[in-house]
Design goal:
Layout (H helix, E strand, L loop, with lengths): L7 E10 L2 E11 L4 E5 L6 H9 L6 E6 L2 E2 L5 H6 L2 E3 L12 H6 L9 H5 L4 H19 L16 H13 L5 E5 L7 H14 L5 E5 L3 H7 L2 E6 L2 E6 L1 H6 L1 H6 L7
Parallel strand pairs: 3-8, 3-9, 6-7, 7-8
Antiparallel strand pairs: 1-2, 1-4, 4-5, 9-10
Length: 258
């Protein structure tokens, strides 16, 4: 399978709410084997595009495909079954489950017995639960969090909770990983851990897209960057090209005024 067929592609994606155009006929290609950044000021449409890609929103126009298969029209659960996984701006962990159990939720599509069976006192369920726990612990160890596996999310700092959510997103080895502001709320040490983890995650088979306001992180890990403003792309290219783009400096980086 060549590079193109492993891409997540949007063609002519348009989204409106109450007559207000949020996305304006976007053409975009997120390629496997790359980390792609999606940046822009607040209200530019970044999360709306993520929501269209994952099925939370249905664009009025355009198509979305992955590996040549149409995704538009499929509900979020069906897209997740195809390996399209995302994190959210606001941490959404289950407070009644431990950290490792929250991460194990990310493995539900990978096991036949299912989440409920894994907790019943049946041999198959116990085997799957043990395997799920091993995989979840491995994902947590990538962020140095294996020591917090049996804690509850409420006992952890907000930045650590975000890393747990990202571990849950990656544990099932998705084909497409969409990260919405993964560094929000992280301190410098946590951001360094996240940066190293994302670099390790980058494989030829994975499409990874990062929405982020931390420009140092974006510029250091991304192969390509799309810049969105008022529902339209104003630039796309390597970090160096985007950094030097006059429109980006004016609109996003605040060259003319802060």
């Amino acid at each position: 399978m060549d590079q193109l067929t492993r891409s997540l592609v949007g063609k002519g994606v348009s989204l409106s709410f109450g007559g207000i155009k949020v996305l304006k006929g976007l053409d975009v290609e997120f390629r496997s084997g790359e980390i792609t950044g999606l940046i822009g000021p607040n209200g530019a449409g970044k999360t709306s595009l993520f929501n269209c890609l994952t099925g939370a929103y249905s664009p009025q126009e355009g198509t979305i495909t992955y590996a040549g298969d149409r995704l538009d029209g499929l509900p979020p659960a069906r897209r997740a079954q195809k390996g399209v996984v995302r994190s959210f701006q606001t941490v959404a962990l289950c407070p009644d489950l431990t950290v490792v159990e929250n991460v194990m939720l990310g493995l539900a599509r990978n096991y036949h017995a299912g989440w409920l069976s894994a907790f019943l006192p049946l041999p198959r369920g116990r085997r799957e639960r043990d395997e799920m726990r091993r995989e979840a612990l491995a994902a947590l160890s990538g962020f140095g969090l294996e020591g917090a596996a049996d804690a509850f999310p409420s006992s952890l700092p907000p930045g650590t909770q975000r890393l747990v959510e990202i571990a849950r997103a990656i544990v099932g080895k998705p084909s497409v990983l969409l990260l919405d502001e993964p560094a929000a709320g992280l301190n410098n040490a946590e951001t360094r851990d996240l940066t190293r983890a994302l670099r390790r995650l980058a494989t030829p088979e994975l499409v990874m897209v990062v929405v982020e306001h931390d420009m140092d992180l974006v510029m250091s890990i991304c192969d390509r960057i799309y810049v969105l403003n008022f529902g339209e792309f104003v630039a796309c290219g390597t970090p160096d090209a985007v950094r030097q783009d006059a429109d980006v400096q004016r609109i996003y980086l605040g060259t003319d005024d802060d």
